[in-house]
N-acetyl-gamma-glutamyl-phosphate reductase (Metabacillus halosaccharovorans), 1380 residues
Amino acid sequence: MKVGIIGATGYGGVELYRILSNHPHVEECILYSSSEMDVPYSNSFPHLHQLSNHILRDINVEEIKRDIQFLFLATPPGVSRDLTPKFQGSNVRIIDLSGDLRLKDRLAYEQWYKRPCVSDDILEHAVYGLSELHKEEIMNADILANPGCFPTATILGLAPVVQNKIIDVKSIIVDAKTGVSGAGRNASQAFHYPEVNDNVKIYKVHEHQHIPEVEQALHSLNEAVGAISFSTHLIPMTRGIMATIYASVEDSYTTEKLLDLYKSYYAESPFVRIREQDVFPSTKEVYGSNFCDIGVKLDERTGRITIVSVIDNLMKGAAGQAVQNFNLMNGYEETTGLYFAPIYP
Amino acid sequence: MKVGIIGATGYGGVELYRILSNHPHVEECILYSSSEMDVPYSNSFPHLHQLSNHILRDINVEEIKRDIQFLFLATPPGVSRDLTPKFQGSNVRIIDLSGDLRLKDRLAYEQWYKRPCVSDDILEHAVYGLSELHKEEIMNADILANPGCFPTATILGLAPVVQNKIIDVKSIIVDAKTGVSGAGRNASQAFHYPEVNDNVKIYKVHEHQHIPEVEQALHSLNEAVGAISFSTHLIPMTRGIMATIYASVEDSYTTEKLLDLYKSYYAESPFVRIREQDVFPSTKEVYGSNFCDIGVKLDERTGRITIVSVIDNLMKGAAGQAVQNFNLMNGYEETTGLYFAPIYP
Amino acid sequence: MKVGIIGATGYGGVELYRILSNHPHVEECILYSSSEMDVPYSNSFPHLHQLSNHILRDINVEEIKRDIQFLFLATPPGVSRDLTPKFQGSNVRIIDLSGDLRLKDRLAYEQWYKRPCVSDDILEHAVYGLSELHKEEIMNADILANPGCFPTATILGLAPVVQNKIIDVKSIIVDAKTGVSGAGRNASQAFHYPEVNDNVKIYKVHEHQHIPEVEQALHSLNEAVGAISFSTHLIPMTRGIMATIYASVEDSYTTEKLLDLYKSYYAESPFVRIREQDVFPSTKEVYGSNFCDIGVKLDERTGRITIVSVIDNLMKGAAGQAVQNFNLMNGYEETTGLYFAPIYP
Amino acid sequence: MKVGIIGATGYGGVELYRILSNHPHVEECILYSSSEMDVPYSNSFPHLHQLSNHILRDINVEEIKRDIQFLFLATPPGVSRDLTPKFQGSNVRIIDLSGDLRLKDRLAYEQWYKRPCVSDDILEHAVYGLSELHKEEIMNADILANPGCFPTATILGLAPVVQNKIIDVKSIIVDAKTGVSGAGRNASQAFHYPEVNDNVKIYKVHEHQHIPEVEQALHSLNEAVGAISFSTHLIPMTRGIMATIYASVEDSYTTEKLLDLYKSYYAESPFVRIREQDVFPSTKEVYGSNFCDIGVKLDERTGRITIVSVIDNLMKGAAGQAVQNFNLMNGYEETTGLYFAPIYP
């Protein structure tokens, strides 16, 4: 299989490259960039010196259709809206890592993303692919909308209790924390080292574009889900997302029973690891890997549960899950090329 | 005024020293330590080379009574319980920065701190001193229990809406983030650099000893307050606490009205800074200072407000507030020796 | 005295503001910016919320001449070249924190800075002001070139042994490490958080524009000084410079004798702290302060000495030294408004 | 092949485990620890939850001899001295990652390590194994002393110019910078997060135990090598070593010629990457990988060259090189299980 990556000079793109260049079913990986072309990829990423002799190519749709069978779009917002229609009717299957194709409600897209939405036609075809929850649809997708980083951690953390209707969905509050690589590789004062180091910032309060994505996905598991509270914080670290989730739970549940539920819900999910009682995961414990680790505990004093869900935002939150979906879409073993340990420390 | 610091070799102690050594009403500052004595203070803290010629003294209660009029206890849990009774009846007034004297309910203390409580006599005398809320009692206190770092940020963030009864107090959820200096200067694997760097950890889930302190203080503002949800996260930074607080608010409130309420509530509080609409403080914006900065915003979709309250855990969360209380107890201007700008970046 | 800061929205500018707003001889501090004007200063720096009610002013030379007596230029390279001539003949004395006026050799300036040099007239008037070494000239200066951050640490580290001719000046090698704030507040990929965090980079190898400044200053102490080896490394921290300096020393010297020499050389310099035998300073030990801390040790195996000199790049390396020079130029006590302890931790 | 790791609960041990658990020729990897036994390995390292079902075993020499064919010692100083003799005459081949067997001169060991040296018998058998330089001896070794982290970066950086006698070996100065994981997993105040964060420290000035190791290795390449200057700095980052090396070079050399020499010297070394002219590696560019990246440049003004050599201290500086040597000792391809890209960012 020959695959392509558009947006190879971003962090999502280079993480895709790290995985795909070792993937047993990928014969060749062609790299495209709109900002740089005809230059060696290792100029952009010197850590690939001698490992990659790729030359970045311009985005020429006809050549892409001719040269590859599978395309990853690791592009900024708005690009997929323009690009995906050009591949309709071709043999190229697509995974889009941007948010352009995730929301089924085009008005919601336009409201939260503040830009025009993709065509209805593309929207209908695009499958929202959180690997653990939508395996069937993913397998048959031609255009796949890869979930966002915050939604992945949040939805995996909530799915068992939302789908089984054991929490009050109106009570859901998600306090999310992210490393800075989630903001991409383009510099701006907000991510300038001296502004971020030794600092915690909250941002996009009540306005993060991942909110409707989380609500849409949870709603599909349980129709009672409406608006949830969701906030995002920038943490002085490179990688990692932690979603700390609070919700009121049915009286009859204990921590033990909750953990059993989670373990059984994810029994067939090799990348979700449920922690033992009284143990909570930290973000570093999934660093560089495709795992989503989850801890749960009931607070008997308040009747609420605390769910902690962590991922590496560039892996399970972007490139890793994209390759997991690529595996599913092609009928490969779900873990192919992805089942390696986190780096610690 | 001659003052003493017991526990001068800890982070709280050295921050007290930084402030008190420039305080216009402090004639002399004597430093005590149980772990090191008869050695120069600057051996423990080389950043004080040539600035301090203090020799650490052993803790001799009789000498202390003779030498100083005011004592700061910046000691580990359990020490104040033993020390404070020895100063009863003396002329030495005390500010205790540990948690030993904060809880009025001795059973709660024993349950959350897992150690025996101080005597009833001391408990009755000890005034819980969050400077902005308890000014009168502080002025008349002989033994003052200085609030904890998390409680300070949380209570200041919640007081206006709790006291004015405009939120559903059952809905309060506090997601707190702290820098590592809050854990003190003693090394342990949990705070070993490679374990903390590039990592977010949740800890003491549902079990943090600051929970009953927050509840006690909020309850005193509004009797409806019972158990709240409160969690703590370790962030890879040296200083700073952010409390992100969620609560359901009465229908009639807008962000604008909430901000007016906060500004008016803290109109006489020089160290509380309420941010403008749509602006939220980050922890670095109070670094090294005694400020508590607060941002508030209504989420119309959920009917909840998000309150963000930040402090420097060693300043407003410990030594700074202790000196603010010292000023109040002595009838000095509240801001004496404390009203300096944060360091940025 | 009314003073002005041009370039107040940069890191050097805001550090000047932090010091000058507490300086007993500064009646008013007026802030100018070419990029922002007529907006509150605290918009640029929210940590100054309620502390500063300054409105940033446009740079109007005639108004500046009328309104202030003393001007600090905390501007990017090239700006002082244009601005300083406009104040000639006025009553405004100037301290320039940029590199524009430091090199007496205009060809060297043009070669290393790669831009045209200031006029000869200004060059002749401008006094290079490393406070500890050029006290007399500073006192009489009207235009002062404030030293660079790396040169300050390096020259103070080397002056005693260079001036006393006890090292082989051809053997001098300086390996310098800096925090990221030295690069200023403008964002670029090189200082983007994910690129800097958990990373050490060498940069401008053999080409740093501070090299000729160091050589010029050392040469003025000892004519034998020619080209030296000098390299700069970017460290994942906000503030701090360490210069690790190696040089071959005369046979007869011991570490003890060297330390005596340093202590005696800096006996009248309140901001230089010489450490005891076998103790070396770290950058955090001067954080936020105007100190330069120095450790020295002879390696008997190689006949070389290792000198370690640390400063806070924004303080002694920029704003702090500028105010120290301001004190000297105005006949104030050298330490006025500057003699406070580092923040630790 | 069945292999064992003694010291599996340290950072070197767990990095060995990360590599060996994916190594195609390793059938089983048994983990030993003196501090913990009969507990699951993933208790010590929760990032291995569900990935490792190993139970830590006690160190029983007879059982080890029976169960494995190859042993890695990732143990603190002094342990190998006691352990290695017990395996003499057995079929177990050993790679020791500690410094115990590296110095051929037992007096030097005792002077620099300040503890008794291993027996002469072991010393004679132990092969010092810097993979790129000692391939032949490594292939035939039964006991291999794996090089230290600083020596690996330094020796690889200097070997081409030392062996080819084009620098003045008396002029060599090495200024090394390291991440904190090099200090191991045991907590101490020196590596307590608030003490390390935002700080650069020099340590063990002129006394680092890696100095004689570097000198011994360079001397074996060029008998003129005697004492060199070598210093070590602690950097606020988890992984990575940079050795910045200065030396006077023969007149006839240009940067171009030097780079040619380096490329040709390492033409057969898959893990050494020589950078192009005017490009220098940063530590993050080898993060998590076994590469050693080198940049070189002549300073025509001083006649000195600056060599920058970077490694990941836990990989090429410890576990990675150990597996590279394991491959060589067993006749496997040198890159087996090791040739993967660095993680970036």
